[in-house]
Amino acid sequence: MDLSKKISKAVKAGKLYNLEHFHNAWENEDLRRLMGNELLFPPSPRVIEAVTQFLPKMNYYPEDPATNKKLLQALADYAGVAGGADWVTLGNGSMEIIDMLPRTFLDPGDEVLLPCPDYSPYARRPLLYGGTIVDVVPDADFIYTLEDFTNKLTKMTKMIILSRPNAPAGNLLPREILISLLKLDVIVVVDEAYTEFSGESVVGLLEQHNNLIISRTFSKAIGLGGIRLGFVLSNPDMISYIERIRVPLNVSLLTQVAALAALEDADYIRNNVKKVIAARDMFSNQLAQISGVKVFPSQGNSVLINTHESGVSAEALQMHLLQAGYLTRNLSGGRGIPGDFFLRITIGTADDMHHVAALLRERISRG
Ligand SMILES: Cc1ncc(COP(=O)(O)O)c(C=O)c1O
């Protein structure tokens, strides 16, 4: 049988993800992981203890996320959502949320506005549900105006999806622009994966705007990328629609246990965030002093640089750092990231960042 004749048009339009960088990191555990915007500090001892206690109970199904009100309430409290548990639902990582939301809203032909660049899975999942991607293009510093979005609106525009802080640029779409977007007749999804590192969130806008959906993750500031947990914040009406497409029992027992324990150790999260912010700002300042390096000011846990003026490609820099034991991410040529000179470096410890800045300086000075 010619399988390709049976595959839906939408799936044919889909593309595979390249997640080699995680494979490389697991194959070479001695390398420092500055490639995936994870937290480089280990989980809180309270998380390890809680998970260990539940290991002998892995023969049982977990409870469904919808009934684990204790966890949903803890998440609402963590995020500052006054309405509580009914304003929250869970995804198997926010990558699953990025799949759930287009599935909830899109009919074939609907358009989704996406900043370009932004987190790459946004540009893939809507296609699977018949959606069309419409690029919203910023200036050369990755700064957006309201008109960049409104010029792209049509009768078919159903959703806007954006990350704030932006991945990979690290900047924040101004709050006033976001409020203007919320006044439009579209669903606005704000991915706050990096919110803890920016100290800025739009949670306070949820009550006034029933078209606002916020996505959060345990993979960044909370430091639990391995448990795969994301959560959605929105009004109960919206949550009830998203619940219709959520796969039952989509969040594992150990994930639920780890999440609750992590939230009970808020000081641990806060301290790690402080360390990352201090290392990020120190690293950005050091990079800004290297001639030929353009540093994009970051409110996240990574820094994007453009080394075009130095003439040294991102690939050459990535190789140089790899030889010194650091995995980083060459984003050049990705969606909205033209050329060969864009390298993104996740923030590790202060020592890592001093070392990486020195390595970059040395390689660039050689030309
Ligand atoms: C903006 C953004 N959203 C979501 C994710 C993925 O998060 P999760 O690990 O929860 O799937 C990332 C990961 O890099 C990201 O940059």
Summarize the structure in words.
The chain is 38% helix and 15% strand. It is globular, with a radius of gyration of 21 Å. It has helices spanning 9-13, 20-27, 45-54, 69-79, 94-105, 125-128, 146-150, 175-182, 195-198, 236-245, 253-263, 266-288, 314-323, 350-366, and strands at residues 32-33, 88-91, 111-115, 132-136, 157-163, 187-191, 212-217, 230-233, 294-295, 302-306, 326-327, 329-330, 342-346. Helix 3 runs antiparallel to helix 11, helix 4 packs across helix 11 and helix 5 crosses helix 10 (236-245). The mean pLDDT is 96. Strand 3, helix 6 (125-128) and strand 4 (132-136) form a beta-alpha-beta unit. A seven-stranded mixed beta sheet has the order 2-8-7-6-5-3-4, with helices on both faces. Strands 9-10-13-12 form a four-stranded antiparallel beta sheet, with helices on one face. A two-stranded parallel sheet has the order 1-11. The chain has 14 helices and 13 strands. The protein is of the alpha/beta class. The protein folds into two domains: 3-42 and 267-366, Aspartate Aminotransferase, domain 1, CATH 3.90.1150.10; 45-264, 3-Layer(aba) Sandwich (Aspartate Aminotransferase, domain 2). Pyridoxal-5'-phosphate is lined by residues 37, 93-95, 119, 163, 167, 191, 193, 217, 219, 225, 230. The site of pyridoxal-5'-phosphate has 13 residues, from helix 5.
